[in-house]
Amino acid sequence: MPDEKTVNENDAGAAAQGATDQDAPAVSETAKRAGRDLSHVAPEVGVAKPDAILTARGVQRRFGGMTAVDVDYLEVERGAITALIGPNGAGKTTFFNLLTGFDKPNQGMWTFQGEPIAHKSAARVARAGMVRTFQLTKALSRLTVLENVLLAATRNPGERMFASMFQPLWAGTEARNKEKALEILERFKLDKMRDEYAGSLSGGQRKLLEMARALMTDPAMIMLDEPMAGVNPALVQSLLGHIQDLRDEGMSVLFVEHDMHAVRHISDWVVVMAEGRIVAEGPPGSVMQNQAVVDAYLGAHHDTDLGDDALLDPEVLARLEAEEEKR
Amino acid sequence: MEELLRVLTLALGELLAPATAAYALAAIGLNVHFGYTGLLNVGQAGFMLLGAYGFGIATISGAPFWVALLIAMAAGTLFAVILGLPTLKLRGDYLAIVTISAAEIIRMLGRSTLFDDYTGGSAGIRGGDYKGSFQELSFLPDGRTMIGPLEYLNNGSDSWWTRIFAWTLVILALIVVWLLTRSPWGRVLKGVREDEDAVRALGKNVYSYKMQALILGGVLGALAGIVYVLPGAIAPDSMGRTMTFWVWTVMLLGGAATLFGPVLGSMLFFFVYMVVRTGMRTDLMEFLPIPTQNVDHVAGVLVGVTLMLIVIFRPQGILGNKKELALDAR
């Protein structure tokens, strides 16, 4: 696929351009590039995907009288980047925690690569190939950066208590893991920090470290909980690049995000949640124009740049407020 | 001057004393719990008492020395499993509450009249009843040996043989803990200490690792209990909360999550403790307004103050890594 490369090189430019372009094309450039063209999939809630890696059915999570998550049906496409968005309190993170085994549903089931993993422990879910990161990064502070990544390696005989006392039993595996870990660290530009304690990393570096750790487990699917939260704009670009790389290597990515630019430019499919339910699904370009989404999530003024100085003008503010009242 | 020498000799004796080895061993176990895995075990004395009972009662029932030793270790394992099963899935504080009360339960059961035939109630078990098989193992010739300023019987309760055995156990425990903590297994434990959810998210069975750590530290505690009672007797009331707090002091003094911290901590603790107690009784310290009968209490207060000072001013202990600690924001 020679086309793929050319688009790839233009990607940075396209992303920058797209950031100012509100009317992005219905199918994102990235989807075409990866050959994950979901444009022929109808943008309807609960629609079937060509090749689903994750299928959830009737998932409910109630906290007392409040139903935090009530998802009837959702399929997540293999090898694509799917964004899960929604306003605060929409149940995105709760749904995310359910899928990854960090919370237990009141009812519902879901399969991952055909294997039912509902009600399984978080560790079992991870071993099945679905690995997550956290919104508040969990760097293992008093382990070095390299140790953080090495810890993520799977099937290490040295992690069994009795075998661990005999170094020859695990030295080989450890050496191979170390080689792989160093490659991953280099890719995330953390190789110079390998012997530093992870606790001394900056917030952005911790995000990268978490991603590196997840990658070390050779996952089929990476679940990112707000990967851009609290990251400076320069690093956002690099993070987006890394997420696209994961997808281009054949991994499926599902991420919860608030940053609309990020969602628009890297996701192949967007799932919108509000009040625990999925209210819309579709390619990033068109789903943003869905009136239900605009109203529920973005608000009537999603075109207004909140950083705009115009908002400091009391007249503009008053006009916006008046419009809001009318709705 | 002569008195000062006597104080120093006594304190030097403490460096090698079986009790010092017992505390070192118990602190090595607690270090596996707290230092490496982050488990809050506030009942290490319970493991020790159980180990002592296991060894003593098994020996009295006719078990050979090594079988009695294994029974004590099994008792420690069982205790760890019982405490861990319900609590290790919960937050760390629960384990703390359960261990402190379980340790007290063991002591209360031991000193109750319920099991009088086995435990001897509050009077405990006389040393002579269970020491025979241990002392028969000695390969030392009878008599006394003087090394430097220290002179002890070769064989017997408070003997060189007891010391050799006690410190051999400490060295073996150090080797095992060193082998384990430098391995990928140890790395998982440290990961659990830092953030168990992160480790869980990477596919590790955190519960099982915590249980393994609890058992390992508990077995070391049980062995420490045996070492502690070999020179004396099994007295449940001498193995209560105070003992747990001393083990904590010893571990924190030396440095949590360091290999030699517990050993250094134990030696230093008992050396200084002896200097303070005997020192305050000498004529040199007559100017202190402390009556002789209160010296032990004052020394106890000083232990408490020391624990506080360590936690506040040098939480990483003597051998701990300052840089590592600077990261700990919790």
UniProtKB/TrEMBL annotation, chain A:
**GO MF annotation terms:** ATP binding
Highest taxon listed in the record's lineage = Bacteria
Under Pfam families, the record lists: ABC_tran, BCA_ABC_TP_C
- Keyword vocabulary terms for this entry: ATP-binding, Nucleotide-binding, Transport
Tell me the protein's name. Answer: ABC transporter ATP-binding protein
Compositional bias segments (type: Low complexity)? 11-26
What organism, scientifically named, is this protein from?
A: Myceligenerans salitolerans
Residues of the ABC transporter domain: 54-300
Q: Does the keyword ATP-binding apply?
A: yes
Fetch the Gene3D superfamilies from UniProt.
P-loop containing nucleotide triphosphate hydrolases (3.40.50.300)
Q: Where is this region: Disordered?
A: 1-38
From TrEMBL, chain B:
Membrane among keywords: yes
> Where in the cell does this protein reside?
Cell membrane
Q: Where is the major localization of this protein?
A: membrane
Transmembrane ranges, per UniProt, are 36-58, 65-85, 160-180, 213-234, 246-276, 297-315
Q: Which UniProt keywords are present, listed alphabetically? A: Cell membrane, Membrane, Transmembrane, Transmembrane helix
The yes or no answer to whether the keyword Glycoprotein is present is: no
Superkingdom of this protein's organism = Bacteria
Q: Identify the InterPro entries for this entry.
A: ABC_transp_permease, LivM-like
Query: What is the recorded membrane topology of this protein?
Result: Multi-pass membrane protein
What PANTHER family does this protein map onto?
A: HIGH-AFFINITY BRANCHED-CHAIN AMINO ACID TRANSPORT PROTEIN BRAE, HIGH-AFFINITY BRANCHED-CHAIN AMINO ACID TRANSPORT SYSTEM PERMEASE
Provide the protein name.
Branched-chain amino acid ABC transporter permease
What is the originating organism of this protein? Myceligenerans salitolerans
Q: What is the lineage of its organism?
A: Bacteria, Bacillati, Actinomycetota, Actinomycetes, Micrococcales
